[in-house]
Amino acid sequence: MLRRHFLSLASAVAIMTSLPFAAIAATPKDQLVIATNMSSMRGLDPHELNQLEAAEVVANLYERLIVLPADKINEPQPGLAESWTISDDGKTFTFKIRSGVTFHSGNALTAKDVEWSLRRLVKLGLAPSTDLRQWGFSADNVDSLIRATDEQTLVVETPEVWNADLILLSLASFSTSVLDSAFLADKAKDGDMGREFLQTADAGSGPYSLRTWRANETLIAEAYADYWQGAPAMRRVILRHMPESSAQRLQIEAGDMDVATRLSSTDLSALETGGKVDIQKTPGFGFYYVALNQKDEILSNPKVREAFRYLIDYDGLSKTVMKYYGTQQQSIIPAGLPGAITDNPYTLDIDKAKQLLTEAGYPDGFSKVYFATPVTPEYEVAQTLQANAAKAGIKLDLQGGDHIGKFRERAFEIFSARSGERLPDPHSVLASYATNANNADEAKLTGLLAWRSAWDVPKEIQDMVLAAAHETDKAKRADLYTQINKAYLASSPALVTSFQRTDAKAVRKEVKGYTGHSTWLTRWDTVTKGE
Fold first, then answer.
1. How far is residue 71's CA from residue 60's CA, in Å, rounded to a whole number?
2. Partner of 259 for a Cys bridge, out of 34, 58, 291, 376, CB 3.0 to 4.6 A?
3. CA-to-CA dists, residue 195 to 47, 81, 117, 138, 444, angstroms
4. CB 331 within 8 A of CB 340
């Protein structure tokens, strides 16, 4: 029966996707259609991916122990764990796993599945594993520290005492999604624990199950009728690959799309005044950054790093391409979190940049290859930096493309993109931007932006970051973060931050309950459609 359903659906999709967009009628009342850019969606394994669009899909295919409501992002709520306790010494977390939850396969979800999933995350050791590895979990100790004591009880023991909120917030991240271990038992290839299989399939218990995904074309998810919180109102969610902003704008205006993403600021502004859509601006816990490879003799000069601070047109970008996508923020702790400061001391100043370059020994400038992600608004920001750098004598060979792999391998000179740290706590950002315990190539700390940039972060900053993560007193913790924030800015870091990210989406007014989430966990099962 399942196969007949799949074939029928596949046929319907083939017919639908072969039609020109103009022929598609307004979206059905029980379906949600989202226009998106799939070019950076490499797969759907929650223990591997680290990207916004794919994370939203995974957030609906899988469930996690802890839930962070979009409107109460700092208040962990029960998810698959209906309750939990923390030992007096702060090291042992005991979770009672909810009964009556089933995976899409029909298998019952138990603590054993949670145990296997969290161990898998750590053992795979890919970028998302940082969410657990940063607390001392490793392939060597995870089997003894994360264990199911019976079908409904999971024990998570941390090697050290950390602020308890950090552990709970980590267990709400999409990276800690729970997988169907029995279903995946025969899907492994060469010890990959089902990694290849999960690139284009799901093994979750979320409100939606994956029915089909054609890379850079279409993804379809079907409502899971036996979802433990009840079947969703939208029986189907369709994601269409549509990288062109103008095409998205036309389709959402015509009613052929319900949600549009990655639109240009010009199109967002036009839609906002058109009256048919609402523009959501969801604050994120990441930044737009320029990474300067510290293996490069020129770029490792502190005065050169400082010069780049004066080559960004903060005010001009704020009024144009960043109007919907970011707020000016040059320090490292996101606004609204403990230790955040409002100081933005840098402005576009070509003469100041030239002066710093001369002091660094490069009065005539230099040439470098500049990798940038070719999507809105990253590429527009990169183009303005290229133009301003040229005025200061720096020739940047701007190359758009999917260069994230080269960045992770440190095989770049200059790279820019935006980060999306997922924990609503300063430590999430600082762990990536301001810690690098081992700067050697063989350390392969690929989850850390500081390591990718080969930046040997000053020891006093790293020590303060760790101290704040261990601190349980809120006032002392906030004071430490303020100190870190100021010290980081003064260090002329290899990661030049300019704007705190905002994720902007256009949503048709009849769509209710589609709410952007700061940690990328936007849900579809809350969506309904009115008139």
1. 18
2. 34
3. 9, 25, 12, 19, 20
4. yes
Domain with CATH 3.40.190.10 in the chain: 27-243+509-529
CB 124 within 8 A of CB 137: no
* CB 1, CB 205: distance < 8 Å: no
Strands 326-328 and 77-78 come out as unpaired
Q: Which helix (H) or strand (E) holds 400?
A: strand 394-400
Q: Which helix (H) or strand (E) holds 8?
A: helix 2-18
Of residues 452, 366, 362, 367, the one with CA closest to residue 407? 452
Which of the two residues, 356 and 42, has the higher pLDDT score?
356
Domain 27-243+509-529, CATH: 3.40.190.10
> Looking at domain 283-503, what is its CATH homologous superfamily?
Dipeptide-binding Protein; Domain 3 (3.10.105.10)
Contact 35, 257 (CB under 8 A): yes
b/e burial code for range 17-54 (CB count within 10 A of at least 16 → b): eeeeeeebeebeeeebbbbbbbbbbbbbbbbbbbbbbb
- Alpha-carbon span 227 to 66, nearest angstrom: 17
How high is the mean pLDDT of the chain?
A: 92
Residue bearing tokens 């200059």:
414
What the block records as the tokens of 408 is 């992770």
